[in-house]
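Subject: design request, 344 residues
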């Protein structure tokens, strides 16, 4: 089990200072505008999941977060001197015979961290699928937080409209180049740092869920955005009264929502505030009430061990890895729907 970025910072006594200096900022969620392949992912302390891809000829390997909350692929480049690039693999265009410079710059802001660089084209290998002429970002600067990430880069799986620099996302190219059997990919996230996490391109893996799949139509085709009817604890509506918008996001560790709603949930489950976090007594975790997300007429329940992160700057809920660990998630581009089924 590797250490997460937060654990590394806590070990050095830097977490409290760091979270004040670089607060979680969901600005990335305020944007105005014939084959099945399984890619195994490493579970980093239940806080991040990443897999290995290759770029170039001959292939250069990188670890990336498969992020349904963004749309660009990028990796560090040999032209980057930020601390975050010093401790990660860096792509060298000069060592790839198939690389072409796209002649445009790239700048992306994430919930934690940011990067700038330029765009290029090359062959990208993902889970045994070879995607030709994939536009991707080569970082030249990366924010300090990225130095604490285990993964080298990010592979975005949201809609093209969200992509910076008019890049075509990797899964769109898989569809356009007829590399997948169905225009679907699905995600299974393991629990308790266990092995077995996987993103399946082109289909659904029945080994990773039980019962039926609940299909939920998207409310917007930018993120994987859906309408949540309400959030209840002990049968009482505590948040999202009258409905709210949420995105299913593999790139966010926790569940994120507006501060007032999160405070009400925290109160309903018996937590208290300490140093800006909602804290509970470890001995009472198993007796904490469940939090229920009511979506499209169905109840999706999270047991009392769920951790909820505050986000004061957005009205959009983020159903992150805490949610996806419980519910196998299917991202259907053909019908623009999300499918959720109880994970095995």
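Subject: RE: design request

Done. Sequence follows.
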């Amino acid at each position: 089990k590797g250490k997460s970025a937060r654990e590394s910072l806590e070990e050095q006594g830097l977490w409290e200072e760091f979270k004040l200096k670089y607060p979680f900022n969901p600005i990335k969620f305020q944007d105005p505008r014939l084959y099945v392949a399984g890619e195994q992912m490493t579970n980093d302390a239940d806080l991040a999941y990443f897999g290995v891809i290759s770029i170039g000829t001959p292939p250069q390997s990188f670890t990336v977060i498969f992020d349904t909350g963004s749309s660009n692929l990028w990796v560090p480049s040999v032209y980057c001197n930020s601390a975050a690039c010093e401790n990660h693999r860096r792509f060298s265009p000069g060592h790839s015979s198939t690389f072409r410079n796209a002649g445009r710059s790239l700048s992306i802001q994430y919930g934690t961290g940011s990067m700038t660089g330029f765009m290029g084209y090359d062959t990208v290998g993902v889970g045994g699928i070879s995607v030709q002429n994939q536009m991707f970002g080569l970082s030249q600067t990366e924010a300090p937080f990225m130095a604490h990430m285990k993964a080298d880069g990010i592979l975005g799986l949201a809609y093209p409209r969200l992509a910076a620099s008019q890049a075509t996302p990797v899964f769109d190219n898989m569809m356009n180049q007829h590399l997948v059997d169905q225009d679907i990919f699905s995600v299974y996230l393991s629990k308790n740092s266990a092995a077995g996490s996987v993103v399946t391109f082109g289909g659904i893996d029945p080994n990773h869920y039980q019962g039926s799949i609940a299909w939920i139509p998207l409310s917007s085709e930018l993120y994987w955005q859906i309408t949540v009817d309400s959030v209840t604890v002990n049968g009482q509506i505590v948040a999202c009264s009258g409905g709210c918008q949420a995105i299913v996001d593999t790139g966010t560790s926790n569940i994120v929502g507006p501060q007032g709603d999160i405070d009400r949930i925290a109160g309903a489950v018996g937590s208290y505030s300490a140093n800006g976090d909602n804290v509970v007594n470890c001995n009472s975790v198993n007796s904490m009430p469940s939090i229920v997300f009511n979506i499209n007429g169905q109840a999706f329940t999270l047991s009392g061990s769920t951790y909820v992160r505050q986000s004061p700057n957005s009205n959009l809920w983020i159903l992150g890895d805490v949610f996806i660990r419980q519910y196998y998630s299917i991202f259907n581009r053909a019908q623009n729907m999300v499918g959720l089924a109880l994970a095995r």
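The longest strand covers residues 129-142.
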